[in-house]
C-alpha cells in the first residue's frame, strides 16, 4: 500500500460496540432484493453482502421500514414482527463474515411511501399537504399513530439486535418521515410534534430515545447512529438550513449516540464533490460536512458520504469527517479497499460494464436502474 493511504486504515474507537478497524464505510442502499410479500432479506441480499463484507468496517443495510406496507419501493426491506428475525440473522452473519460491523438502517418513508400507497391506498405524513411532486394524496398521522411509529422504531432496533446485528442507524435523512417532521415545509402540525422549531425536533428526539432504550436493553454494547441531511433547501423552498441542523445535532448528541452519518448527496445533488459541498444558505466559508465535524468536535465520529469515487477522494474525505462512506463505489467495486491495500488502486472499477457477473448485484436493482428512477448514476449498469 502507498504510505499516503495509511490514514484510511487507522482504527477508530466507538463508544459502544468496540472499534472500527479502518475508516471505510458502505452507505445504506436499498437494493430491491427483499421478499415482496414479507420484506425479509433473501438469498440475493445475502450474496450481495457476502461479496461486500470486506468493502468497509462500517457496513450499512439499505433502509428497512419499521412497519408493514409502508415501503417506498417494491422489494424494500421491512421488519415488523419476530418471525423475520431468522431471515435477518442470515443477513447479519453475511455482513459480519469478515469481521465488519453490521448496522441495519431503520426507516419510515412517510409521504415517500409510494409502494405502500400502491398496495394499501395510503401514505402517511406529518401533515396532509398537497405535495406537487407526488401523484397521490397523503394521510396525516394522528398523535397516537405518531407514538406508535416511535415504538416501532424501537421494536425494529431490538429485533435487529436479536438477529445478531451490531447496531442500527436511525434514518433521519433524505426527506423521509423523520426529516419531514423536522422540516417547516412538511410539518404544519400544532401539537406536540409541530408548531415551533423546538416541537419540530420532538419526533427525531423521541425516536432516538426509544431506539437507544430498546437497542441497549437488548445489547448494552449496541452501536446506534443517526443519519441526517445537512440542509433541506430546494430553490425558494427551505425546510431547514444548516444552522437548524446544528441545533438538532446538539440535541441528539445529548443522548448516547455512537456516530453521526451525513447524507450529503440527495435531492438531485449527485454532482462531483458532494461530500464537501458548500452550504446553500448562511455565511459559512467551509463545506457543510466540515462545519458539522467541527461543531460535533470529538463527541462522536462523523461519517461523510457523497460522490466519493476514488482512493484519493476517500483519503480527501477524511479532512471532512472520520469515516469515508461510499454507495456507488460499493456497487461497482466491492474490492475497493483491498485494491488500495494491494497497491492496485488504479484498477478500481467505477464502471460496472463488462464485469457484472462478479458483482452479485440483485436483479431488482438492475431493473430499477433500467426503469430510470432518480438514483445516483452507476456507470455501465444499464445497456445503452
Ligand atoms: C441504489 C441506491 C439506494 C440508496 N438507498 C438509500 C437508503 O436506503 N438509505 C439512505 O440513507 N440512502 C440511500 N441512498 C443514498 C446513499 O446512501 C448515498 O448517500 C448516495 O448514494 C451518495 O453516495 P455515493 O455517491 O457514494 O453513492 C441510496 C443510493 C443508491 C445509489
TrEMBL record:
GO function terms (MF aspect): FMN binding; oxidoreductase activity
UniProt cross-references to PANTHER family, sorted A to Z: BINDING OXIDOREDUCTASE, PUTATIVE (AFU_ORTHOLOGUE AFUA_2G08260)-RELATED
Pfam families noted in UniProt: Oxidored_FMN (PF00724)
Protein name: NADH:flavin oxidoreductase/NADH oxidase N-terminal domain-containing protein
Origin: domain of life: Bacteria
Coiled coil start-end: none
Domain NADH:flavin oxidoreductase/NADH oxidase N-terminal, chain residue ranges per copy: 8-343
UniProt keyword annotations, A-Z: Flavoprotein, Oxidoreductase
Family annotation (SUPFAM superfamilies): FMN-linked oxidoreductases
Organism: Enterococcus malodoratus ATCC 43197
Amino acid at each position: 500500500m502507498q504510505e499516503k493511504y495509511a490514514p484510511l486504515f487507522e482504527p477508530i474507537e466507538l463508544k459502544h460496540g468496540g472499534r472500527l478497524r479502518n475508516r471505510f464505510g458502505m452507505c445504506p442502499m436499498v437494493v430491491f432484493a427483499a421478499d415482496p410479500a414479507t420484506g425479509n432479506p433473501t438469498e440475493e441480499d445475502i450474496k450481495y453482502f457476502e461479496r461486500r463484507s470486506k468493502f468497509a468496517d462500517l457496513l450499512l443495510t439499505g433502509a428497512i421500514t419499521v412497519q408493514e406496507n409502508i415501503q417506498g419501493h417494491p422489494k424494500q426491506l421491512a421488519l415488523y414482527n419476530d418471525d423475520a428475525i431468522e431471515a435477518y440473522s442470515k443477513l447479519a452473519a453475511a455482513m459480519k463474515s469478515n469481521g465488519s460491523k453490521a448496522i441495519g438502517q431503520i426507516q419510515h418513508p412517510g409521504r415517500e411511501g409510494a409502494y405502500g400507497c400502491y398496495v394499501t391506498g395510503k401514505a402517511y405524513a406529518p401533515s396532509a399537504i398537497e405535495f406537487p411532486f407526488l401523484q397521490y394524496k397523503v394521510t396525516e398521522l394522528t398523535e397516537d399513530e405518531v407514538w406508535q411509529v416511535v415504538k416501532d422504531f424501537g421494536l425494529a432496533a431490538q429485533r435487529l439486535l436479536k438477529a445478531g446485528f451490531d447496531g442500527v442507524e436511525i434514518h433521519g435523512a433524505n426527506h423521509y418521515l423523520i426529516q419531514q417532521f423536522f422540516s417547516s415545509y412538511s410539518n404544519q402540525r400544532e401539537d406536540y410534534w409541530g408548531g415551533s422549531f423546538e416541537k419540530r425536533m420532538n419526533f427525531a428526539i423521541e425516536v432516538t430515545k426509544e431506539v437507544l432504550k430498546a437497542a441497549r436493553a437488548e445489547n448494552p454494547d449496541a452501536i446506534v447512529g443517526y443519519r441526517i441531511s445537512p440542509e433541506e433547501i430546494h430553490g425558494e423552498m427551505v425546510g431547514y438550513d444548516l444552522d437548524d441542523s446544528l441545533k438538532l445535532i446538539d440535541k441528539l448528541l445529548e443522548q448516547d449516540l455512537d456516530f453521526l452519518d451525513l447524507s450529503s448527496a440527495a435531492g438531485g445533488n449527485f454532482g462531483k464533490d458532494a461530500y464537501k459541498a458548500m452550504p446553500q444558505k448562511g455565511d459559512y466559508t467551509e463545506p457543510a460536512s466540515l462545519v458539522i465535524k467541527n461543531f460535533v468536535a470529538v463527541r462522536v465520529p462523523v461519517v461523510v458520504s457523497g460522490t466519493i469515487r476514488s482512493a484519493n477522494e476517500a483519503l480527501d474525505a477524511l479532512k471532512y469527517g472520520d469515516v469515508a462512506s461510499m454507495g456507488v463505489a460499493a456497487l461497482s467495486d466491492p474490492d475497493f479497499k483491498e485494491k488500495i491495500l494491494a497497491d492496485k488502486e488504479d484498477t478500481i472499477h467505477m464502471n460496472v460494464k463488462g464485469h457484472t457477473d462478479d458483482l452479485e448485484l440483485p436483479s431488482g436493482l438492475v431493473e430499477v436502474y433500467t426503469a430510470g428512477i432518480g438514483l445516483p448514476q452507476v456507470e455501465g449498469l444499464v445497456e445503452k
